[in-house]
Amino acid sequence: MPQMNLVQAVNSALRSEMRVNDDVIVLGEDVGKVGGVFRVTQGLFDEFGEDRVIDTPLAEGGIIGAAIGMALYGLRPVPEIQFADFIFPAFDQIVSEAAKFRYRSGGEYTCPMVIRTPVGGGIRGGHYHSQSPESLFIHTAGLKVVCPSNPYDAKGLLTSAIRDDDPVLFFEPKRVYRAVKMDVPEEEYTIPIGKAKVVREGEDVTVVAWGAMLFEALSSADEVAEQNVSAEVIDLRTLWPVDIDTIVESVKKTGRLVIVHEAPKACGFGAELLSMVTEKAFVHLEAPPVRVTGWDTPFPYTLEMEYLPLQHRITPALLETVKYVP
User: Fold this and answer.
1) Nearest-angstrom CA–CA distance, 23 and 19
2) How far apart, in whole angstroms, are the C-alpha atoms of residue 276 and residue 237?
3) pTM given for the model
4) Using CA atoms, how far apart are residues 154 and 302, in angstroms rounded to an integer?
5) What is the pLDDT of residue 134?
6) Given pLDDT bands bounded at 50, 70 and 90, which one contains residue 1?
7) Do residues 235 and 214 lie in contact, with contact meaning Cβ atoms separated by under 8 Å?
8) Which residue in 8, 77, 175, 278 has its CB near the most CB atoms, within 10 A?
């Protein structure tokens, strides 16, 4: 079994699905001959040609609008937005059109498309290349939102997303693109959308994270273990539909909850998760739930590592939560 990083795993998923299904089309800025700004689509143009790997103008609204038309026609487009920060010119197409077709047609029409885009900070990209806009799309009924943390999950989840009949936002944590390698099967496989994974068992506190922040959460779990604190770490993987049952079961065991995400705290997805856990497991909570997040400011350049909720901010939150006494 080959070792792949996240870039290679996404490329492998695209290649596999394009080989078995001629309706799968890739389109976006520089995705063809160049292979994408992060080289995620490298080699696809040579294998599948310009009719299935389409270089587009710099027009995000046009990219998504064209992809919606393709999906309604019967294709399964996978448009790429070069950075998640550039997705906003296409926001109306996504939330007003793609998300609404199944509902407005009474289920007669679906819009099977996967919008791939790199998210998050950690590469010194500044405020136009580092944002995490997931909550804006989770708020819109009709969209599914996925954010894998590792190569194995990325390939399985992307395969599932391409085969899904609804529009999926597939957020790829670019800080992890080449930072993690693991065994990934060359053959096709799927991971179900909507299922979280407990990646570390624990007894004292539940930690929920996704994307690049999962590794920060795991590092903090290792650190607090030296102080006899046992942290259970959950990789959310799919943000919407969210696997709240896995989180609730963990909180019933630990009685304490810390949520970590890169996006700003105000109206971030962590707030919704806390609300859902409180509604379902309030009597099991032994301490106030805590969010460790980005700050409510534009994403900075020189202070990037102070903005991100890294290990040095997560560890104190875990210790304080565990030590809390009503």
Assistant:
1) 10
2) 17
3) 0.95
4) 30
5) 97
6) confident
7) yes
8) 77
Residues 133 and 171 sit within 8 Å (Cβ to Cβ): no
Residue with the two structure tokens 């109306």: 92
Residue 209: closest CA among 287, 272, 278, 292: 292
Structure tokens at 74: 């019967």
C-alpha dist (Å) from residue 139 to 95, 232, 267, 272? 9, 27, 10, 10
Give the count of beta carbons closer than 10 Å to the beta carbon of residue 114: 29
d(C-alpha 63, C-alpha 61), whole Å? 5
* Residue carrying structure tokens 């790829």: 172
Amino acid letter, residue 110: T
Active-site entry in 129, 139, 284, 312: 129
User: Residue 208 corresponds to which tokens in the numbers above?
Assistant: 């929920």
Per-residue pLDDT reduced to its tens digit, 108-143: 999 999 999 999 998 888 889 999 999 999 999 999
